[in-house]
Specification:
The complex is a heterodimer of chains A (314) and B (511). Chain A is an alpha/beta fold and 314 residues long. Chain A has 2 domains: 178 residues, Rossmann fold (3-Layer(aba) Sandwich), CATH 3.40.50; 115 residues, Rossmann fold, CATH 3.40.50. Chain A has 9 helices and 12 strands. Chain A has a 12-stranded mixed β-sheet, with helices on both faces. Chain B folds into 2 domains: 82 residues, no CATH class; 389 residues, no CATH class. Chain B is globular and about 70 Å long. Chain B starts with a helix and ends with a helix. Classes of the chains: A alpha/beta (314), B mainly alpha (511).
Chain lengths: 314, 511
């Protein structure tokens, strides 16, 4: 079992070969650019459904592929991720390499990881794990190795206008609902446009805003605040919430660039204003909802309707 | 200095992130740590198991329907519960097989030795033997020579290469099973794709047509001969079990041998081949009209293999002998005996080691088929299959499809629907007793209905798990689940029409 160092900031970036997952990795690289942050690239391969291959063990055709000198899909995706980090200059100096293999789920390929460490102790890990399904694999990794932040691409069908499946939610949807740490769901993730932090002035919201402000300051991302009050209420209420939140953030020596008081539908206003930013940052309700009631929570509604990336801070 | 600042930042960030967690979601975190969470997670993961058990209890508790015996109800309940478990897979499938065995002893009151005997039949022996032969053939690495042959004859035009792949995959799969061919051809397909471009996005459509040419080519061929798939051996076993009487010459036609099966099914496979390439190109329209660069590079890679080795010739010779055994001897000694003999020959000659066969075959599949066939026989013996067939027919009557072409279409659609949710062998094992009894009740020819059932079980083009070939090519990582849907429904329509036309125009000539 991998032991998590108490002092290190650990970012788990899920890679599935999609452009969105690599954009998420770029963002992870930016957030984790300090030497104290580790970046773990994770590819989860669903355990082979050996009963479905007609009685042939999957190892027969996998070994045949390897015999032809062909890499398995996840390995290619992770290699591409490593190359992307090298291009960004993250892995430019001397790194030591350590490979680890663990037998898993009766799968002959099992879990494999390559851990790169530089002289300052910063780690980049390429991890290919096997799990009964993708969601379980990501969540198990989160729980086992204690990450501070999880970044994954939004599933194609979990976007505005796409038909949703009640019975079979998208991977990102399920991971967001159950992840024990903060999660960024990347959609067309662009850097340099800053974080828009949502607040209602409550202690919980202020606390979340402060957490994200510190995180954003790691990558010199500009910070803005938004507070929305329903129709019929005064904009002054929103302004009061923004002022309190701003004071809390500035107490951490982080500058707030802009504040946006709004009156109207909360989700609509946040989604509209948030489109200009790299990431919309929001906290789920203090009382974590049951999974079948997820959609009642403002945070999850924003997550679903936003056209850009959203971060749920826990 | 920078190092220290960053550590300080990390501490601050972590402290900030953990601050306040004492009040945030405290109840949830306590719940997470409690044993109730483990119980809840277990219950959710096994929900379909509980659903299946509840359905089973309800079926056993309901008043006995008219015309169904108590034993028939128990077998029917076991079949329904097993089907739910096959489709939803809350427990490993071999566990379902074990429960079927136990159920026959405990619920039906059968003697355990009798149940044990019912597990092994010629069909099961055939499945076991042909799986061992499949592993032995894949281990001989003849795939590179096959690839060389394909690219030598097809040229560099993408559609020709795909047609060549579908044809070679199909012809081979019709004799040695789709899983064997998919395992052998997958590296060929992936190599062609990766030699065209390293960027998966640029070759995505090409990858779909190449890989689906392998899987659909192999899938449509699995019905070509009895050795093409477990489902064929299962249907042959059912015909023999249900209709064949050694003392009655009129029933001898139900002892379907290798050539007779081929006469019925092989043309159905051959006619479908051009449609595979057409449908795939019509649906996905790959940008690369020619893959000359990849073909030239592949030829160069494969050209230095040298001449055929003695082991290569021995494999080909042995396989031809096995094929001849199936054609000439299976009527007397059974398909299964020939298959097991062939597997033994590979071991005796030393072309494969037992450890390789043992590691390459999923014995759980053999156990599963054995149990399902045994349950299928009980469906017939207890009259449950007849009762279901009568009930199904009474449902079809108001629709006017209770006989002739309409009934054939209904059987084909039913089998296609079921086979897309479970393995085609299991679909035939479960549905076979019902559709064959349906033929008897409706006054139809059991051979025709049986062939429609067996052939339609290959129409699992819609899902990754529909056929072994689809599952294997999906493992390449180039395909999405939706790719199977986009082309699969068109394949289903074409395959159904061709099968029904064969039943209408061609098979009567053979009866």
């Amino acid at each position: 079992m991998e032991v998590s160092g108490d002092k290190r900031f650990r970012i788990l970036s899920c890679i599935d070969g999609s452009d969105e997952s690599y954009r998420g990795l770029h963002y992870a690289a930016r957030l984790g650019s300090g030497v104290d942050a580790d970046i773990i690239l994770l590819y989860v391969r669903a355990v082979d459904q050996d009963m479905r291959s007609g009685g042939l063990q999957p190892r027969v055709f996998r070994e045949n592929l390897l015999d032809w000198g062909l890499d398995l899909p996840g390995i290619n995706y992770l290699k591409k991720g490593r190359e992307a980090l090298a291009e960004l200059g993250i892995m430019s100096d001397h790194w030591t390499e350590r490979a680890v293999h663990v037998d898993r789920q009766g799968d002959p390929l099992g879990d494999n990881s390559i851990e790169y460490t530089n002289r300052a102790g910063k780690k980049i890990v390429l991890k290919l794990i096997v799990a009964p399904d993708i969601v379980e694999g990501i969540l198990e990794e989160c729980e086992t190795n204690e990450y501070d932040l999880l970044i994954l691409g939004a599933s194609e069908r979990w976007r505005p206008g796409r038909r949703k499946s009640f019975w079979d939610p998208a991977v990102a949807e399920k991971v967001v609902a159950r992840a024990p740490c903060s999660v960024i769901v990347a959609r067309e993730l662009k850097e340099n446009y800053g974080h828009l932090i949502c607040t209602n002035g409550s202690e919980h919201a202020i606390d979340v805003a402060r957490k994200d402000a510190i995180l954003a300051s790691r990558c010199q991302c500009p910070i803005s605040l938004i507070s929305v009050v329903p129709e019929g209420e005064s904009e002054a209420t929103a302004m009061e919430a923004l002022t309190r939140t701003r004071q809390a953030i500035e107490a951490e020596d982080v500058v707030v660039e802009e504040i946006l008081p709004r009156v109207g539908d909360t989700v609509e206003e946040i989604v509209k204003a948030g489109a200009r930013y790299s990431v919309i940052v929001i906290a789920p309700s203090e009382i974590r909802p049951k999974w079948w009631l997820l959609e009642t929570d403002i945070a999850y509604q924003v997550m679903e309707h936003a056209s850009n990336s959203v971060m749920i801070v826990r | 200095m920078e190092h220290r600042i960053d550590h300080s930042l990390a501490r601050t960030a972590r402290a900030a992130l953990t601050r306040g967690q004492g009040t945030l979601g405290l109840g949830w975190r306590r719940f997470n740590a409690s044993p109730y969470r483990t119980l809840l997670v277990y219950l959710l993961a096994k929900k379909w198991l509980f659903f299946a058990v509840l359905v089973g209890i309800a079926m056993l508790d309901l008043p006995l329907p008219e015309g169904l015996t108590e034993a028939g109800r128990i077998v029917l309940t076991m079949s329904v519960v097993a089907t739910i478990l096959f489709v939803t897979e809350p427990i490993p499938l071999p566990a379902v097989a074990l429960l079927i065995v136990v159920g026959q002893v405990l619920l039906l009151g059968l003697d355990s030795s009798e149940v044990a005997r019912s597990l092994m039949s010629d069909s099961v022996l055939f499945i076991m033997g042909s799986l061992m032969i499949a592993v032995a053939v894949v281990k001989q690495k003849l795939d590179k020579r096959l690839a060389f042959l394909i690219v030598r004859f097809t040229g560099t035009k993408t559609s020709n290469v795909c047609m060549g792949i579908a044809l070679v995959s199909g012809v081979l799969a019709s004799f040695i099973g789709e899983h064997t061919v998919a395992a052998m051809m997958l590296p060929v397909g992936v190599t062609l794709i990766s030699l065209t471009s390293d960027d998966p996005a640029r070759v995505r459509r090409l990858a779909i047509v190449v890989l689906l040419s392998i899987s659909y080519g192999a899938s449509i061929a699995g019905i070509g001969t009895p050795s093409g798939g477990a489902r064929n051996a299962i249907m042959i076993g059912y015909w023999r079990e249900f209709f064949f009487d050694p003392g009655n010459p009129e029933t001898f036609r139900y002892a379907v041998d290798y050539l007779k099966w081929m006469a019925f099914a092989y043309p159905v496979f051959l006619i479908q081949i051009p449609f595979v390439t057409s449908i795939l190109f019509w649906t996905f329209r790959p940008k690369q009209k020619s893959i000359a660069r990849a073909v030239v590079r592949l030829r160069a890679q494969l050209a230095d293999q040298g001449p055929m080795k003695p082991a290569d010739w021995a494999t080909i010779g042995l396989f031809i002998l096995i094929l001849l055994g199936w054609i000439l001897l299976s009527d007397g000694i059974g398909l299964g005996t020939v298959a097991v003999l062939g597997a033994a020959a590979f071991l005796v000659i030393g072309l494969v080691r037992w450890e390789e066969l043992n590691n390459g075959v999923n014995w759980g599949v053999v156990l599963l088929y054995a149990a399902v066939i045994s349950l299928g026989v009980e469906m017939k013996v207890t009259g449950a299959a007849l009762w279901v067939a009568q009930s199904f027919l009474s449902l079809l009557q108001p629709l006017g499809v209770d006989s002739g072409f309409g009934l054939w279409a209904a059987v084909s659609v039913l089998t296609s629907a079921v086979t897309n949710t479970m393995s085609n062998g299991a679909a035939v094992a479960v549905l076979g007793p019902i559709t064959l009894n349906l033929a008897v009740v409706a006054g139809e020819e059991p051979l025709v209905i049986g062939f429609i059932t067996a052939i339609s079980s290959a129409f699992a083009y819609l899902t990754v798990v529909g056929t072994p070939a689809c599952t294997i090519v999906y493992a390449s990582g180039y395909l999405r689940t939706t790719d199977f849907l986009k082309a699969g429904w068109k394949m289903m329509v074409v395959s159904t029409i061709i099968t029904l036309l064969a039943a209408w125009l061609y098979w009567p000539l053979l009866l």
